[in-house]
Specification:
alpha/beta, 7-stranded mixed β-barrel, two-stranded antiparallel ribbon, 12 strands, globular
């Protein structure tokens, strides 16, 4: 993907003549895959939610508008990234994840039918192979998005997570789909993907106790994008993805703004 190209055209001494040209970037329709962060944002049951602490907001004595607030959040909640260090001791922290893993061609695997039949469904290698028979091989270095259909349930905690209980004990009551560890191994070993994303609260299904898919992907340096939105607006392939997290030094994850560029 080509980077941003900013051209400043300035006549000497004529600052008003400066203008920003449109950067060189793939043409297409932009699709925001990010849930907004607010009081309804879904977090893991053992975590506190997002908090926006209102600071200053209003017209200053000098007559101009000014607003500045503070926010508090866990690394893992809402639309966010899991950096490899989340489940791999020697893995990259979020500030160390290469941009090449965050900006790449992407594909969408639609598993909504299976997930509608079984909310504990685990997307397996056979489903990925079936997708390839219909759409062609998953390219090496691609970002794979998994569509379970659960994004439409946001922000209803009970419907989305399987429980609206809070606290560590509530984790045992989670029920939502995820990626089977065998499929994670296949994506890493056979397709060498750049990253993977899903429209649920975890790449592992809610009933998981060992978080095997997290561990497989993290050990291979593959970042994970969770709680994605609007996957129904994407085609099966042929689009680009830009997933830029907050660059937290040493962080195991963080809030993510992710968007797709879909050719017209």
């Amino acid at each position: 993907m080509r980077g941003w190209r900013i051209a400043l055209l300035c006549a000497a001494g004529a600052l008003a003549a400066c203008r920003l040209e449109r950067p060189a970037f793939p043409d297409g329709r932009l699709v925001d895959l990010t849930h907004a962060f607010d009081a309804d944002t879904i977090y893991w049951p053992s975590e506190q939610g997002f908090e926006l602490e209102r600071g200053v907001e209003g017209v200053t004595p000098q007559g101009w508008w000014y607003a500045a607030h503070r926010f508090r959040t866990a690394e893992h909640g809402g639309t966010h990234i899991d950096a490899p260090i989340h489940f791999a001791q020697a893995g990259a922290s979020v500030d160390q994840v290469p941009l090449e893993r965050l900006m790449a061609a992407a594909v969408l695997v639609d598993a909504r039918d299976a997930c509608a039949r079984d909310r504990d469904h685990q997307i397996g290698p056979e489903e990925l192979l079936a997708w390839e028979r219909g759409h062609g091989p998953i390219p090496s270095g691609a970002i794979v998005l998994l569509q379970t259909g659960f994004g439409r349930l946001w922000p209803d905690r009970a419907a989305y997570l399987g429980t609206d209980e809070r606290g560590a004990a509530a984790v045992a009551h989670l029920h939502f789909p995820g990626l089977h560890a065998d499929a994670a191994r296949w994506l890493v070993g056979e397709r060498r993907i750049a990253a993977v994303g899903i429209d649920t609260a975890s790449i592992d299904p809610g009933v998981s106790q060992g978080f095997e898919s997290h561990r497989v992907l993290s050990a291979a340096g593959v970042p994970i994008f969770e709680n994605l939105a609007n996957l129904e607006a994407l085609p099966a392939r042929g689009f680009e993805l830009v997933a830029l997290p907050m660059k937290i030094r040493g962080g195991s994850g963080g809030p993510l703004r992710i968007a797709a560029i879909v050719p017209d």
